[in-house]
């Protein structure tokens, strides 16, 4: 990364892939679910931590747990349904049964066949650490990992403007799931890259404008892109891009997808009605002077609560969720869900534009000549001279560079070289979190 070049084998090599499952997905805090997907006692939801299938449960006392979905007897999957409500989970092989707190509560033949000698106490489901940010449930296998708050660090200062805006929280819808023949790092790298917008998405932007949907015209030309005063920055592996607003300009929140000339007044009224609450929760500066744009959460969170799940070096399973304010008017809710699907769902125009590039790039890592020639990520190297303390993190000069991509791969390299958290640096929190919004509410 010093030279701004990248060996393409990290996208195709089977041994590197197995190593990153252990060293990246085995150590990092990973998004697995959302509180709104398991709102009631005894609800559960199936998810993944990398390639490890997990059960996210809310026990009868309301506590959230994340367990490896593996029977401690001979390894059968304990839960098969995607979600539901159950106090206990019975393995369908021999009938060992686990509570939604992870305890082994019933074993056929415990006396007759095991002679009462089975170590029941220590054969509960394998449990991960759990923490929650703004309703998003994270889990982590590493006992020595920092808190989720430290892991997110100053990135939360920006994420709050999208995910932690409201007293009443958000509702998650989804997921749409699909697979793509790409390495999981390629979409992650792409989701804080704005350099590609005027080229990759030009046709989509024009079509969106034509059909009266909110177009991305602000960034559909290179002139607009390179002249923009908006920002991009990096914290602890998380890549963030921001739209900056002048005093008095109307903020366009990230959740504005689906806004059209026809329904604009409904969005407008809704945004105006919640503005005092936003200022109370986030402070005047965060509520009025920027909004979160494209972004990634290390290692595999892309554009909000959406996951790029690794499925082998050459395959990624996408999970697309949409988050909407719980009290949003129905018209805003419907338009937002559809708008996000039209952009980045499985049939989304933006998603299809992007996938085509990612697939071709992946193929280059497989061609005998191509794989020997490194990828070039040198744009804007060393150009980050943030002089504005209101924007914490490694803030790049200008709106467009490959600083976020280099920092993402450097972070990946730190994890791959570490093996435990004692060798992974965490940037101290320096942001001035004005307002009442906290990690949990
Ligand atoms: S594998 Fe689960 S009860 Fe035997
Ligand atoms: Fe894109």
Q: Explain this structure to me?
A:
This protein is an alpha+beta fold. The chain has two domains: 29-130, Rieske [2Fe-2S] iron-sulphur domain (Rieske Iron-sulfur Protein, 3-layer Sandwich), CATH 2.102.10.10; 153-423, Naphthalene 1,2-dioxygenase Alpha Subunit, Chain A, domain 1. 27% of the residues lie in helices and 23% in strands. It has eleven helices and 20 strands. It has helices at 14-23, 148-152, 155-163, 185-190, 197-200, 202-210, 222-227, 264-288, 330-344, 349-364, 403-418, and strands spanning 5-6, 30-34, 43-49, 52-58, 64-68, 83-85, 88-90, 97-99, 104-106, 129-133, 136-140, 170-180, 231-235, 238-244, 290-297, 301-302, 306-310, 316-325, 375-376, 394-395. Strands 16-15-14-13-20 form a five-stranded antiparallel β-sheet. Bound molecules: FE2/S2 (inorganic) cluster (FES) and fe (ii) ion. The site of FE2/S2 (inorganic) cluster has 9 residues, from loops.
Short description:
The chain has helices spanning 14-23, 148-152, 155-163, 185-190, 197-200, 202-210, 222-227, 264-288, 330-344, 349-364, 403-418; strands spanning 5-6, 30-34, 43-49, 52-58, 64-68, 83-85, 88-90, 97-99, 104-106, 129-133, 136-140, 170-180, 231-235, 238-244, 290-297, 301-302, 306-310, 316-325, 375-376, 394-395.
Which helices and strands appear, and what pairs or packs with what?
Blueprint: E1 5-6, H1 14-23, E2 30-34, E3 43-49, E4 52-58, E5 64-68, E6 83-85, E7 88-90, E8 97-99, E9 104-106, E10 129-133, E11 136-140, H2 148-152, H3 155-163, E12 170-180, H4 185-190, H5 197-200, H6 202-210, H7 222-227, E13 231-235, E14 238-244, H8 264-288, E15 290-297, E16 301-302, E17 306-310, E18 316-325, H9 330-344, H10 349-364, E19 375-376, E20 394-395, H11 403-418
Antiparallel strand pairs: 1-19, 2-11, 3-4, 3-6, 4-5, 7-8, 8-9, 10-11, 12-18, 13-14, 13-20, 14-15, 15-16, 17-18
Helix pairs in contact: 3-8
Bound molecules: FE2/S2 (inorganic) cluster (FES) and fe (ii) ion.
């Amino acid at each position: 990364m010093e030279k701004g070049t990248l060996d393409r084998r990290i996208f195709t090599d089977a041994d590197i892939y197995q190593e990153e499952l252990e060293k990246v997905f085995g150590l990092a805090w990973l998004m697995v679910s959302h509180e709104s997907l398991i709102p009631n006692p005894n609800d559960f939801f199936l998810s993944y931590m990398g390639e490890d299938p997990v059960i996210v449960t809310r026990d009868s006392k309301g506590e959230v747990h994340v367990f490896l979905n593996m029977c401690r007897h001979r390894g059968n999957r304990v839960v098969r349904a995607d979600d539901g409500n159950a106090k206990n989970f019975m393995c369908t092989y021999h009938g060992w049964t686990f509570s939604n707190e992870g305890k082994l509560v019933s074993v056929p033949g415990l006396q007759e066949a095991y002679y009462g000698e089975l170590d029941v106490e220590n054969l509960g489901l394998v449990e991960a650490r759990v923490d929650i940010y703004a309703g998003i449930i994270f889990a982590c296998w590493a006992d020595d990992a920092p808190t989720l708050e430290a892991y997110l660090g100053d990135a939360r200062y920006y994420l709050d403007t999208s995910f932690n805006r409201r007293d009443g929280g958000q509702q998650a819808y989804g997921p749409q799931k699909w697979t793509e023949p790409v390495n999981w790092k390629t979409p992650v790298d792409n989701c804080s890259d704005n350099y590609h917008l005027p080229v990759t998405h030009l046709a989509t932007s024009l079509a969106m404008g034509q059909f009266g949907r909110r177009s991305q015209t602000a960034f559909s030309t290179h002139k607009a892109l390179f002249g923009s005063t908006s920002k991009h920055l990096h914290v602890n592996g998380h890549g963030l891009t921001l739209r900056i607003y002048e005093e008095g300009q109307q903020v366009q929140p990230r959740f504005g997808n689906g806004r059209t000339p026809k329904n604009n007044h409904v969005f407008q009224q809704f945004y105006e009605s919640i503005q005092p609450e936003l200022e109370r929760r986030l402070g005047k500066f965060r509520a009025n002077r920027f909004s979160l744009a494209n972004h990634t959460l290390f290692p595999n969170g892309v554009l909000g609560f959406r996951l790029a799940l690794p499925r082998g070096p050459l395959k990624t399973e996408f999970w697309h969720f949409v988050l909407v304010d719980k009290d949003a008017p129905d018209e805003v809710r419907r338009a937002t869900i559809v708008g996000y699907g039209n952009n980045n769902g499985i049939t989304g125009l933006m998603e299809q534009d992007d996938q085509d590039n990612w697939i071709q790039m992946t193929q280059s890592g497989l061609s005998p000549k191509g794989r020997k020639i490194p990828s070039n990520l040198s744009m804007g190297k060393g150009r980050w001279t943030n002089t504005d303390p209101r924007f914490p993190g490694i803030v790049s000069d200008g709106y467009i560079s490959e600083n976020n991509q280099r920092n993402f791969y450097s972070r990946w390299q730190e994890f791959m070289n570490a093996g435990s958290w004692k060798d992974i640096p965490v940037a101290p929190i320096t942001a001035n979190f004005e307002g009442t919004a906290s990690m949990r509410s």
